[in-house]
Amino acid sequence: MEDTICAIATPWGEGGIGIIRVSGEKAIDIASGVIRLTSGRALSEVSSHTLHHADIVGLLADSSRTSEQVSTSIDEALAVVMRAPRSYTAEDVVEIHCHGGPFVLQSLCEALLAKGARLAQPGEFTKRAFLNGKLDLTQAEAVLDTIRAKTAASLRLAQEQLRGSLSKEVDRIRQRLIHLLAHVEASIDFTEEGITFIQEQDLVRGVECTIEALSRLAATYQEGRVLREGVTAAIVGRPNVGKSSLLNALLRTDRAIVSPIPGTTRDVVEETLNIRGVPVRLLDTAGLRDTADVVEQEGVRRSRAAMEQADLLLVLLDGSVPLTPEERRLVLPDREKKFVLVINKTDLPRELAPGDLQDLERAVAADATVWISAKTRVGLDDLRDAIRNVTLGLEFEPGETAVVTALRHRTALVKAIEALQRSSESIKGMLSAEFVAVDLRGALDALGDITGATTTDDVLDCVFSQFCIGK
Ligand SMILES: Nc1nc2c(ncn2[C@@H]2O[C@H](COP(=O)(O)OP(=O)(O)OP(=O)(O)O)[C@@H](O)[C@H]2O)c(=O)[nH]1
Ligand SMILES: [Mg+2]
Fold this sequence. Notes:
Four Helix Bundle (Hemerythrin (Met), subunit A), binds magnesium ion, binds guanosine-5'-triphosphate, 44% helix, six-stranded mixed sheet, Gyrase A, domain 2
């Protein structure tokens, strides 16, 4: 925290503008060593949050003069000073906007290092913001979620969390627990006197209400995870039912090869798309069948692997032919996965027997059945609705309540719930107040982990190491 850190904040590669960030006690000092304001003023004198035209001066290794380094102008730039505590990190921050070339940015970065800055670690700017009390841990994580958001719904969730929706909910519950714990601890202090500070049934009710509130919050992870991380959906089925045609229709491009020859697709073809706000990683797979062709065998093996990793299976059938015996044992029911049965080729006369379809629906416990034509694109909206409803649930509307999007948060909630269940049993079992207090404290610590109120270094390292350098 004592060091002044710097890093390139924009992505690697060529761009119109590249930004370098410097943060720490000596930020203005160090930056002054490499930039000269065109106005002739000193960087330390300019008002906070104002932009100034400048020249970047530094040492460039000049190959024509062997290893000799010359002080030259590296680039033109705009510089802004943001004085503590009104900055992202709550420290003095200087941002230098120059041209977005890798060599320019690298040279500027090296010039800053030469003047005494240290290269920032991944997430270190945000970690400082957290340690300086600008953000709590859920908000720091929401910064990363904002950067990674792929759909409007996931961005909205990230922004809600950045504004503190989750921390507020967790804090509200924590306050309730602190209140209960205070009463329990008071009775420990006054056991000799035989004074009770809280009626047993009030304590039980308090603990149970808290368990309920935490369980409700933990349950939102189902949807939260889907919106934050997205789902993997594999299109599977017999050869020639139109899997690749469906992928192309959903993407509105000619991504995968389509042909009337069964066994066309061999490799898994993967694309990511936004389906009704859900980020979906869509996999087109080789048709499943027993085959003597070794290349196709490998394709089928890959299809099986894709099915394993998918959260959602779009089981595609050809509605213009009867169900084959092979198709009946194509996919195994799996309670971890969602199944949507998709009957394709509805533009052709229907030959698929309704009884056979019902058997299959029952066998895989299908979550939905949709009729489409990949060729005429009829029914694709129904399929998009089905994918959204099966993965998110019909009633889910992001933004109405706090939503848990990270496994870290859910794990902490479950830990808190378990501790509360133990304390509830201790109360009912008439164990002494110490036992009750230990588990109430355990629950409080678990909740403190979420917002960072009582977090260990391990948790912090784990959270901030996921960030990129410069954030
Ligand atoms: N009439 C009609 N034909 C379709 C439809 N969808 C696909 N087809 C045709 O069915 C044939 C097979 O389509 P593909 O998309 O290659 O089938 P696939 O399931 O990917 O086949 P494999 O890769 O071999 O497993 C092609 O001739 C498509 O034009 C549809 O909705 N209606
Ligand atoms: Mg195919």
